[in-house]
Amino acid sequence: MKPDPNPVANPVGRWADKQVPVSTAQIKEWLRARDTTVIVRPVIDLADCVPVDSYEIPDRIRRRVELRDHQCRFPGCPKQATRCDLDHAQPHGQGGSTCPCNLVPLCRRHHRAKTFSRWRYLIVLPGYYLWTSPNNRHFLVGPEGTRALDPPASPDPEK
């Protein structure tokens, strides 16, 4: 079934497959249909930051990070967060906590780039990351996408 093309201003749910809001009327329609499965999940407070005492990431924390960030937080990467590693921004072995405020979804390729090359990031605010590239360019990555903060170096030294 397709979602209501004109959802209400204050949606009460989300269609996970398409990442779109749905209205009460749409949910009622789905509940009446025999061939539809509706899964009700509790509201998750994305601002919650309760750490655990281990390196391993519990599903409840992973879900918060995936809901907050939706995709890999490397500049320009579209890979869905559900298919990403979760990187400890401050390494766990150096005192970094295992909690949503210290975890960032990175696809395997970009997790390795951050770990084994000179790509680095800082968490500016929850969901916003300031990346520095190996050639010292800066990118702000957040819910609106990636924004380059400085122009690329000119190949012509005369300019």
Low-confidence stretches: none
How confident overall, as mean pLDDT? 86
- Contiguous helical run count: 3
Order of strands across the main sheet: 5-6-7-8
Distance between the termini: 57 Å
**Shape verdict:** globular
Amount of helix:
10-25%
Q: In angstroms, what is the radius of gyration?
A: 19 Å
How would you explain this protein's 3D organization?
With 159 residues, the chain is α+β, with helices and mostly antiparallel strands. The chain folds into two domains: 1-41, no CATH class; 59-148, no CATH class. The protein contains three helices and eight strands. The protein has helices spanning 24-32, 59-69, 108-116; strands at 13-15, 20-22, 85-88, 103-106, 120-125, 128-132, 138-142, 145-148. A four-stranded antiparallel β-sheet has the order 5-6-7-8, with no helix packed on it. Strand 7 and strand 8 form a beta hairpin. The longest helix is centred in the middle third of the chain and has 11 residues, at 59-69.
Features:
single chain, 159 residues, alpha+beta, four-stranded antiparallel beta sheet, two-stranded antiparallel sheet, 3 helices, 8 strands, 18% helix, globular
Offer a concise description of the structure.
It contains 3 helices and 8 strands. With 159 residues, the protein is of the alpha+beta class.
